[in-house]
Amino acid sequence: MKWKRLRENFFLSWTKRIARAAKEGGIDQQELDWDGYEKIKKEITLKQLQGAMEKAKGEEIAKRKVEREKKEKEEKMERVAQKRKEREEKAMEREETKRKAHRKSKKKTEESSVARKLTLKKRLTKVTYWLQCNMKNLTINLRKRI
Question: Most buried one in 2, 51, 56, 128, CB count within 10 A?
Answer without folding.
Answer: 51
